[in-house]
Write a structure and sequence with these properties.
The protein is an alpha+beta fold and 312 residues long. It has one domain. Helix content is 25%, strand content 15%. 43% of the residues are buried.
Length: 312
């Protein structure tokens, strides 16, 4: 009695076909997964933007401060970033979990939730120059080697929308913010609401702009726990987190936790997710967001359109 069976050649052909299909489909699946993460990030930015707009309805049309400190008399280090101030409107810390970032729900323990998790800064809000100890010569982009390469040797100005509550210089964590209370901008004061960044993917909750670094889209020395990637090299601007690898910015730093500042080799080349001051959210190439400029009306020069709420 004869038994029918596959020959070895037939089995090898089937295995080869399966391998070819897997090689074709797995990258597609990975791409779909990355796209899904990007969609979740955009949705989170949208929810945070809506929470911010609800906040403005209760606070005389003003955006929340970038950060609120305890009163100077308390001599306390406590800082309450904008994410914390808006929790009554977000009603969820989970919104802050950026699936394209380094912190996941699985490791969102008591060490990086609540106040501490907010300080880690998966998302940042741009502080206005008036709230910080800087000046417009320090709120500039195009003075570093990598900045000049992107701006063509020109110097561009920028500004933000968020103020500070109980700022000052008496405690280290408040350094860089002006004394007392500096109100945030009002929504009606933003000239082009659909173009101005309100919240963006970041490594710190205030982009570190208060440190008054010239060309502060580069890197700034910081203690390792103070930013998302646990690195002494901190991105001082929106980050290009939405990449094929969904990791740190391309071409900036390997995020080493030791040593000094790691020099940037170029400005980021990935995509950034952000919410605009009119509440809509999307992702765009980092260089498009930071490289689109407008002429400055009040002073001679050029400004980054997404970070110039006064308009031209």
């Amino acid at each position: 009695m004869k038994r029918k069976a596959f020959t070895l050649i037939e089995l090898l052909v089937v295995i080869a076909i399966i391998a070819i299909l897997a090689a074709i489909l797995f990258p597609v699946f990975a791409q779909a997964k990355r796209a899904a993460k990007g969609s979740v990030a955009i949705s989170g930015a949208k929810q945070m933007g809506l929470a911010q707009l609800m906040y403005t309805n209760d606070y005389d049309d003003q955006f929340s401060p970038v950060v609120e400190y305890l009163p100077p008399s308390s001599n306390d280090w406590a800082a309450f970033p904008w994410e914390y101030l808006q929790q009554p409107y977000m009603k969820s810390w989970g919104i802050l979990l950026d699936p394209t970032g380094p912190i996941s729900a699985a490791n969102a323990t008591a060490d990086n939730t609540g106040d501490a998790f907010a300080i880690y800064g998966l998302w940042g809000m741009p502080p206005e120059q008036a709230a910080t100890n800087g000046n417009y010569s320090q709120y500039t982009f195009g003075t570093s080697a990598t900045g000049k390469a992107m701006t063509g040797g020109k110097v561009w100005s920028y500004d933000g929308i968020g103020g500070v509550a109980n700022g000052g210089y008496d405690i280290w964590c408040r350094f860089g913010y002006n004394m007392g209370n500096v109100p945030s901008m009002a929504t009606t004061a933003v000239a082009n609401p659909s173009d101005q960044v309100m919240i963006a993917q970041a490594a710190t909750w205030d982009f570190m702009w208060q440190q008054s670094n010239a060309d502060s889209f580069s890197l700034y020395f910081s203690s390792a726990p103070s930013n998302t990637y646990g690195s002494v090299a901190t991105d001082c601007a929106p980050v290009a987190r939405m990449l094929n690898s969904m990791g740190p910015d391309v071409g900036t730093t390997p995020y080493s936790t030791g040593g000094g500042i790691v020099p940037a080799t170029q400005e980021p080349t990935g995509r950034t997710c952000y919410a605009a001051t009119d509440g809509h959210a999307k992702s765009v190439p980092w260089r498009q967001l930071m490289g689109t400029t407008i002429p400055i009306g009040s002073r001679t020069g050029t400004a980054i359109k997404a970070f110039w709420p006064a308009g031209n």
